[in-house]
Amino acid sequence: MRPRRASLVELRLSAYAGHRRVALPLGRFTLLAGPSGSGKTSVLRAYESLARLGSGVPVGEAFPDPGACVPERARPDAQRRRGFRIGCTADGPEGPVRLDVAVQAEPELCVVGERLSAGGQVLLETALRDPRRPFVQAAWYTGGTESVTRASMPHDRLGTALLPLRVAGRTDGERRVIAAAEQMVVALRSVFACDPRPDRMRAAVPVNSGRLLPGCDNLAEVLWRTGAECAIRHGLLTAAVREGCAGPVTDVRADRIADGRLRAVLDRGDGLLTHFGRLGDGELRYAGLALVLLTGPGVLTVDRPGEVPDALQTLTVLADGFDRALDPAQRARLLELAVRMCERGHIRLLGAVSDASWAEGAAGVTVVHLKP
Questions:
Q1: Which of 79, 83, 142, 285 is deepest in the core (most CB within 10 A)?
Q2: Cα separation of 145 and 159, whole Å?
């Protein structure tokens, strides 16, 4: 049975930062484990950059610091060029689809090569033929009288993301190309990189868009919005926070203060309100991650494929330092919550931890060990 929802099942770092010839399996809930310097954060950044490319942004936005992506010992060629190579596999209705991308970081940032394939068939291949021109030569499979169609594509964007707009879909081969490209793009998009910042979560915030920021800075604003929108989800969040915070908790909400800003508070049930500014770092990080897992992409700052029904979309949460500042009890409760939410299929989680011994063997958790 092929999965109904498209999702990444493998991330490949062929030559990226400190990684060479690395293939990382990805499950619904995956933890990257390894000591400092093993490259956990660079894996998350590679995933996020691929997601940005998949959404159609220029390569400069996808890789804001391309020099950090080049392997440290990579030497420039005769034309003084250096770069990196990454890729992934997306499973879904079309079966496994592979994408491999070569990016030149120096002297000019651009995509110099790309290959999209499925079932052993190359569906799209691009190559930079003339460095003086801002184009790559692309060839995609047609299966018609001419086996491929050739055309130019801009070298600052991912060709796979452009295919649905470029391919006519007149032949079975072209329709297969479009379907594979769309599966890859849907799998890559809707990524939320989350790393709650307790120092920022303690402050009162103004009312803006109501969409949660990656550092959970505006958690109070999101509580103000979600508390009124969905009583069921708000109840689940309150129950989760109750398990991860000290003392009794009957509600978690946002209150307006005199200047119109919002601050997050815990209602203790006896008339006492505890401002989030009084909570510990572990309690705040726990509350932020619980909120992310229990809300939907409509509340998070993510790029969603609007043409795909919500029932077929999956939100991927990237959590650096997933267990940072958490005590063993908070860690166990967050693990249980993450497993439960990932099992439903709407959320996938890729987190980074130094030691994953506390999660080894847990049902629904894939642990990938990285070495420095």
A1: 285
A2: 23
- Length of the chain (residues): 372
Q: Cα–Cα–Cα angle for 138, 142, 147, nearest 5°?
A: 85
* Strands 135-141, 121-127: pairing kind: antiparallel
Q: Is 34 helix (H, G, I), strand (E, B) or coil?
A: coil
List the alpha helices (DSSP H) in 295-348: 328-343
DSSP state of 263: E
Token readout for 185 is 């793009």
What band does 297 get if pLDDT is binned at 50, 70 and 90? low
Cβ count within 10 A of residue 64: 10
Q: Distances in Å between the alpha carbon of 278 and those of 20, 215, 248?
A: 45, 18, 15
Distance of CA 304 to the CA centre of its chain: 12
Of 319, 311, 310, nearest in space to 291 by CA: 319
Residue with tokens 């068939």: 121
Q: Is 84 helix (H, G, I), strand (E, B) or coil?
A: strand
Three-state secondary structure call for residue 82: strand
The one-letter code for the residue type at 54 is: G
- Is residue 357 packed enough to be buried (19+ CB in 10 Å), middle (13-18) or exposed (0-12)? exposed
Q: What are phi and psi of 159, to 5 degrees?
A: -60, -35
| pLDDT for 331 | 97
- Give the span between the Cα atoms of 51 and 41, in whole angstroms: 15
Pair 31, 351: CB distance under 8 Å? yes
pTM of this structure: 0.92
What does DSSP say about strands 110-118 and 97-106: parallel, antiparallel, or unpaired?
Answer: antiparallel
